[in-house]
């Protein structure tokens, strides 16, 4: 049972009074009763001494007990205070650890740490600031406290630059020194002058700042504010330092985890997407097609697959490099993506190939409509580095389940349809038909046979005369490639030349053609049968590959003919993506004295600026404009315009496909320089043309 301390003191005092009075009266009575009067003085003195000694002993005993109790009480209070501080410390650390484990966002963690500091450390406000990435100002990102603290935070500016007054306070110093900084008398410290007014209004008297760091670098500071001077004890400082250190480790762990997740997401993304275009890759699209087929198999509906090839895109890579090609490929992908609607998927299938999956269609009309949209969208060129690149798509369309019942067959048949579109003139689309498969098999077999045709001696050069139509004089011949297959017989150049271009065999065949033509030209020149050049068609692949000029030098040297005796013919489409490397190659040819001509003029490139930029010597009017002369008014106007333009540019003009005297007469009338066609002679082997050169027969076949 507990007794009130004041009542205990009263009881002790009353007991003392009672005992003292009993001693006084009892001892006096005993002296009078027991001893004679003459002893009374001595006995009274002895009695007093005894009383003093006894009461002194009692007082000593009482004071020692009080002192002991006081000491034990103080020790108990200290123990209780320490225990409370330990509980607060553990509670604060526990709350902080819980927040660190639960939170994945560092800014939410910062806010919770500020709340923990305010709650467990008994302070008015705590805030966390981070240094600007490219500056020196400290930006508050989290805080907790009362309304005055919130107001204070809006008033102040803090810097990490010690040269500025705003950088010499506790936060700035903690960032600079990476140590805890205390301003126990904040309102009297001269280094805190920039914040004195706001601190007085808010009632802050002591401030401490604790650096936040990870990986050896300071990322910010935790600032803590109290109302009492000297508030921050060693225990409070130790607690907040522990919290600050834990926050640094937690932020580091969060950033590692964030980077790990980012890398995993990147790996997963790259596993499913094309790196250059950002589209789905081949394997992911195959999964999408399988899923669409599974869904359509369940509901009995159809799906459409478009196989898109960008015509002549390989030439862009060869002419401008793969960096430019990749950028244009990305632009093409973005253009395709812009045309997609709901239920559609787009992927990059190969180098210049794309697939579009329409998950649900009612027939072929939806696929045809999208293919038309795609073709129309590419009527506008792709722009990069102030250059315009015209790219045309060839598209094949296959439908599930009409054309195929699995993803592999659907992709294959859509590709077959695309190849048919390409053979049909490019920049068009075709729906798959069963008959197309036999065409593909035929082309594959033809390509396989073409690969060894040159070594087997199956490739020949035939020659067609070119005449000056003013005086009907032989001024040159064109070398034309022919293939005599041992089983198929003569294969049309229109059939095997595109195969050679697509397969890359055109480089080997083209180089052989130049060497063979130069050797034949040397023979004719040595006999005096030909004074003009021999013309040979060259492909873009030959020119772009590099080293073409040196290769021609070697051929001319072996053939022992001069450079003007060789004329290289290029189609207009070769200038569609005119590049610096192509211009340099043509300039190199021109410096050597080679003649350069544009074949099939008027059917390809619409920008005529290349005529004045490139060192050309001759234009060859395409036979499609000559065929209906002179009756077709439009062809007549086009032909006359081409001749007039060429003459104005100081270029010679040759018309191909001249077959009638009426055509010849019209060409002579408008000032065309040269002609080539069946009227003057069909392409023929070298020995047959040599015999005709030696004869006195005129060059008109009907003479």
Automatic annotation (TrEMBL):
GO terms for molecular function: cyclic-guanylate-specific phosphodiesterase activity. InterPro entries: Biofilm_reg_signaling, EAL_dom, EAL_sf, GAF, GAF-like_dom_sf, GGDEF_dom, Nucleotide_cyclase, Rev_trsase/Diguanyl_cyclase. Residues 443-697 form the EAL domain. Its EC number is 3.1.4.52. CDD domains: EAL (cd01948), GGDEF (cd01949). NCBIfam families: GGDEF. Keywords: c-di-GMP, Membrane, Transmembrane, Transmembrane helix. The keyword Membrane applies. This is cyclic-guanylate-specific phosphodiesterase. It comes from the Bacteria. It holds the Pfam family EAL. The keyword Thylakoid does not apply. The chain crosses the membrane at residues 12-35, 41-63. Residues 301-434 form the GGDEF domain.
